[in-house]
Amino acid sequence: MSNDKDRERHVELLLGRHVYDMGGRRIGRIEELHAEKEGDYHVLAAIDIGPVALLERLAVRHLGVTWGGRPHGYQARWDQIDLEDERCPRLTCGVEDLEVLRPPRGRHRTR
Predict the structure, then answer these.
(1) Residues 6+ away with beta carbon under 8 Å from 91
(2) How far apart are CA 66 and CA 106, in angstroms?
(3) pTM for this model (two decimals)
(4) pLDDT (tens digit, 9 = 90+) per residue, 7-58?
(5) In a 3-state reduction of DSSP, which class is residue 73?
(6) Residue 50 and residue 57 in contact, taking contact as beta carbons nearer than 8 Å
(7) 25 CB contacts (<8 Å, ≥6 apart)?
(8) Which of 21, 29, 105, 107 has its CA at 20 to 30 Å from residue 74's CA atom?
(9) Cβ atoms within 10 Å, residue 88
(10) pLDDT in tens, 51-61
């Protein structure tokens, strides 16, 4: 039986880590973590991965910064990613099972 100490993680160490799919291919970096409060603890609910997540985390979309090409990203639920080895997070499902994050739509001025 595992105790609470075995389940604790220093999630700040996950930011910027590459996430790998089940075949060992990199799918992006961890850019944002979502937690929910359960009793006295906060538990990991979801992880945002990729360039779109970075844009959101840095809030640069509000400054009119754009990203070349079509940025993309994914959101993995807590049960879709294995964090046992914090240095090498791996998906426990296929990439196609993740929620796709889309870039925010820019505001266009009209005259």
Answers:
(1) 19, 20, 21, 22, 27, 76, 80, 81, 82, 98
(2) 9
(3) 0.76
(4) 677 788 899 999 999 999 999 999 999 999 999 988 899 999 987 766 666 6
(5) strand
(6) no
(7) none
(8) 107
(9) 13
(10) 776 666 666 55
